Amino acid sequence: MPVFHPPKIAASEITPRALYLDRRTLLGAAVGGLGLAAASKVFAAPLAGKETDYKVTEKITSKEDATSYNNFYEFGTGKDDPVRNSGDFKPTPWRVEVGGLVNKPQVIGIDDIMKDFVMEERIYRMRCVEAWSMVIPWIGFPLSALLDRVEPLGSAKYVAFETVVRPDEMPGQKGFFQPLPWPYVDGLRLDEARNPLAILATGLYGETLPNQNGAPLRLVVPWKYGFKGIKSIVKITLTENEPPCTWNKSAANEYGFYANVNPAVDHPRWSQATERRIGEGGGLFGGARMNTLPFNGYGEQVAGLYSGMDLTVNF
Ligand SMILES: Nc1nc2c(c(=O)[nH]1)N[C@H]1C(S)=C(S)[C@@H](COP(=O)(O)O)O[C@H]1N2
Ligand SMILES: [Mo]
């Protein structure tokens, strides 16, 4: 029997040592002297072209960084484990079971998904709960298009997602100590899932999704912390009750169901006010530090989903 061994991300991984030891001093006048831009926005050079809801104009993270600095605990807990350990993973053939409170439950093969849904590129700002961020050009289609196809019943209030379990292909699922209980699961409220920003991605940088990024199909919800972006999905279920979420199950006080990016609500063990943009700026700790935006900058599109909710309680 494997032992469920919930990981505690070390605060030292979140905020480089000097910074977490003396955050207050650093956030004060001393910041400039250290060459950090902790208190001011330091967005990288914009791309040519107009910013739209679906394409931010911040500098795109290099493909190299986006495909080698990953969280995918099924392949190990280190940032470079997914790229190193996912070579044996077979993303095809692949079937996704879509059911629960729907009129037309169905099992859809990835080939049909590629054929039936119109793929488009979305350049999204992504923000991990560990206070780092990237800008990634995804290829995908609106989750709502898939929901339309199965016709949710009026009683459906949530959408639950489940990742594949394949210990033979996913070394993080094998062995005595395993970092999380499997399968990895997460969920959205139905109206969140229907927001046009929420997509199911099948690619990035104009290419098919690599294994380490969640091949062949993963969720991308850019206004929420990265852990909601569940990878390698095999099951989507419409439910009446709030579905479980892996990180919330493993530490409910640290990771909420909603997980909206919110600089005003600190993680119990580190600040969420700023983030490190991977690959940018270099700086002392590798990654320009910038202010984190409410809803990761997507407030105009999504804040209305949460009107009347206390987001410090429903975090
Ligand atoms: N199945 C599964 N999905 C997952 C994870 C995981 O460990 N397993 N990690 C999550 C976390 S914490 C983040 S930040 C994003 C990272 O996505 P990326 O590696 O494509 O940037 O995937 C999310 N989806
Ligand atoms: Mo994350």
Q: How is the CATH topology named?
A: Sulfite Oxidase, Chain A, domain 2
Number of domains: 1
Based on CA atoms alone, the radius of gyration comes out at 19 Å
Element pattern in H and E: EHHHHHHEEHEEHEEEHEEEEHEEH
The portion of residues assigned to helices is 10-25%
Query: In total, how many beta strands?
Result: 14
Portion in beta strands: 15-25%
Mean pLDDT: 89
C-alpha termini separation: 34 Å
Number of helices: 11
CATH class: Alpha Beta
Q: Can you tell me the overall shape?
A: globular
Structure description:
The chain has 315 residues and is of the alpha+beta class. It has one domain: Alpha-Beta Complex (Sulfite Oxidase, Chain A, domain 2). The protein has helices at 11-14, 17-21, 23-27, 30-34, 63-66, 81-85, 110-116, 143-150, 190-193, 246-250, 299-302; strands spanning 3-4, 95-100, 106-109, 120-127, 132-142, 158-163, 177-178, 185-189, 199-204, 207-208, 218-220, 233-239, 274-277, 288-291. Strands 4, 5, 9, 10, 11, 13 and 14 form a seven-stranded mixed sheet that branches. A hairpin with a 2-residue loop joins strand 9 (199-204) and strand 10. It is globular. The two termini are 34 Å apart. The structure holds ligand MTE and molybdenum atom. The ligand Nc1nc2c(c(=O)[nH]1)N[C@H]1C(S)=C(S)[C@@H](COP(=O)(O)O)O[C@H]1N2 binds at residues 70-74, 128, 163, 184, 213-214, 226-227, 229-232.
